[in-house]
Automatic annotation (TrEMBL):
<keyword id="KW-0489">Methyltransferase</keyword>
<protein>
    <submittedName>
        <fullName>Methyltransferase</fullName>
    </submittedName>
</protein>
<keyword id="KW-0808">Transferase</keyword>
Amino acid sequence: MSKAGAFDLASGVGGKIEKTEVLSAVEKYEKYHVCYGGEEEERKANYTDMVNKYYDLVTSFYEFGWGESFHFAPRWKGESLKESIKRHEHFLALQLGLKPGQKVLDVGCGIGGPLREIARFSSTSVTGLNNNEYQITRGKALNRIAGVDKTCNFVKADFMKMPFPDNSFDAVYAIEATCHAPDAAEIEIGDGLPDIRFTKQCLEALKQVGFEVMWEKDLVVDSPLPWYMPLDTSHFSLSSFRLTSVGRFMTRNMVKALEFVGLAPKGSQRVQDFLEKAAEGLVAGGRKEIFTPMYFFLARKPHSDKSASE
């Protein structure tokens, strides 16, 4: 996982946004959301700008607190957050039946933590699709460090308008990314979501475009530990210290100090605040079982008559 430190966090806040413009970007991002008077239709109409601003603002916080893979995972007792995340990425590779030399697409790849892990685990070439320039720049640097820059790459594009010809890849996956497509307020603002969907809507969308759903399940059902445990302030973990209540308190004051002395741009504390609100909303939603980031489905394109006869 990433070894990002305090100064990496401070220098990364805002991503490609000019440091003097970070505060105004925070204010504009907040106004997209209901709790600040924003309308759902406006969020959908401006989802590219909204999601880009979100990831410019929060990526360094994510990497500082969570690591290189920005997702949750089912977790076994005695397993660290890092171990559960790797195991989940291996699970995805196995479910896709990946074979050495295949070409794979990661839709909404973040800074590429999953694609690096899956590429090394399965000996495949993985392309990360991302519309955020800062995350791509960071991902390329981490690819070089990991030694996968010859087999893994990034393409900057909107996943609603993919720039690839049909059948360019042997497999495609997305991990907590397509929720950003435009089509629980604290969760929405803290996670850059235009809106939140029901699992049945996901299934219906798959079927409407012609996919055959092989199987689907909310993976939290069989997880011995709650998916939201890393964000639960009542839980303490040395391996995920930065996510604990003590760790967050220290980060909050560190960000405040770095912003005060000018090492972090103005608005950094505001970003920290809405991420903490998101964490509270996620934990509450998880406890009430009204929100899950772990809904999994495996789908395939139906075999055409041509391919079936060959």
